[in-house]
Design a protein that fits this description.
DUF34/NIF3_sf, alpha/beta, 5-stranded mixed β-sheet, Udp-n-acetylmuramoylalanyl-d-glutamate--2,6- Diaminopimelate Ligase, Chain: A, domain 1, globular, metal-binding
């Protein structure tokens, strides 16, 4: 398998278009035409991980965090990023990052976080904006069902727990083809009036190419009239963080002790206890200060995340327990999840879980 054939498998795990605009995901180092000999999955593609890939005969590293996050003007080996990239290039090792694409997936980082803590019925904390589009097209009455089914097969018409969603309204379409036209209905240079159905379906932005391909393939007209709109609706099953409930409410201290044990963190920094049980819990793996207000608005009793600064703990406002468990710890199980997924998808070469601990934070 070549890397260009491998990438669609990662897109099945989490479409790269789910990633945040600031992120750097996908193939960061290497050639799309490179044949894969083995895959090493890690949290951070540091130089030690590249050494491990060399030792274990893996020429593709799949990492959660992108080793290349911002642009490099020089590659001289002066820092850990440059050294890792240089070693990877010298040894023909490709690096692929998935990061916030998997953060935002409903079965990704935060679902794993919820499962680890025993949080039931989790829902997205901050649904993704500017990601739903609408296709409007006009189809002869006799062809509307075949066009509709084709669009559904391409992924259109899915809304939350429902699929095959569309809206249809009848009307009359008019057109007149010139001398270069080859009309399916009517003749050149004659205005035609046809009973048509206005067909409307929504879809996720990353599906646009396949949706339009299906439209053109299934529509009977030589020239297909259609419009694509960006909607302001938020995508409820994709986005940052999750919120759900514990099966049984817990004392604040007992709850944080459970979190500490489950995430294997060396310590938890938290805001003041409020003297009330913890039942409704919000989580966000990685740096999550930006979601404090969302957790408050959705009446969470506790919000578990990482990288909170001193003044951000004040935002608890005696309404919620904020807990910083550590960045690595809040995401620690994601590489296991990627390995399990890839082993199910690929059997022609090894998929190996990295043994290198890339957590830069230590606890006394």
């Amino acid at each position: 398998m070549k890397i260009r054939e491998f990438i669609p498998l990662m897109e099945e795990l989490a479409p790269l278009s789910y990633a945040e605009d600031f992120d750097n995901v996908g193939l960061l180092v290497g050639s799309y035409e490179q044949e894969i000999s083995g895959v090493l999955v890690c949290h951070d593609a540091l130089e030690e991980v590249v050494d491990e890939a060399i030792e274990k005969h893996c020429n593709l590293i799949v990492c959660f965090h992108p080793i290349l996050f911002s642009g490099l003007k020089k590659i001289t080996g002066k820092n850990y990023v440059e050294r890792a990239v240089i070693k990877a290039i010298k040894n023909d090792i490709a690096i692929f990052a998935i990061h916030t694409a998997l953060d935002n997936h409903q079965e990704g980082v935060n679902k794993i976080f919820c499962d680890t803590l025993g949080i039931s019925n989790p829902k997205i904390l901050i649904p993704k904006a500017n990601y739903i589009q609408k296709l409007v097209t006009y189809v002869p009455v006799k062809d509307v069902e075949s066009v509709r089914e084709s669009l559904f097969k391409a992924g259109a018409g899915a809304i939350g727990n429902y699929d095959n969603c569309s809206f249809m309204s009848k009307g009359q379409g008019t057109f007149k083809g010139n001398e270069k036209s080859n009309p399916v209905i009517g003749q050149q240079n004659v205005e035609e009036r046809v009973e048509e159905v206005k067909l409307e379906v929504t879809f996720e932005k990353h599906l646009q190419a396949s949706i339009l391909k299906s439209l053109f393939a299934s529509h009977p007209y030589e020239e297909v009239a259609y419009e694509v709109y960006q909607l302001e609706n938020k995508l409820q099953n994709v986005g940052m963080g999750m919120i759900g409930e514990l099966d049984v409410a817990m004392d604040e201290v007992a709850f944080l002790q459970m979190v500490k044990d489950k995430t294997q963190t060396g310590g938890i920094r938290h805001s003041a206890f409020l003297g009330k049980p913890i039942k409704r819990v919000a989580v966000l793996g990685g740096s999550g200060a930006f979601a404090i207000q969302s957790a408050l608005a959705q009446k969470a009793d506790a919000y578990i995340t990482a990288d909170l600064k001193y003044h951000e703990f004040y935002q608890a406002e005696n309404q919620i327990v904020l807990a910083d468990i550590g960045h690595f710890e809040s995401e620690r199980y994601i590489k296991n999840y990627i390995v399990e997924y890839l082993k199910k998808k690929m059997t022609t070469f090894a998929v190996i879980l990295s043994n290198v601990n890339t957590n830069p934070v230590n606890y006394l």
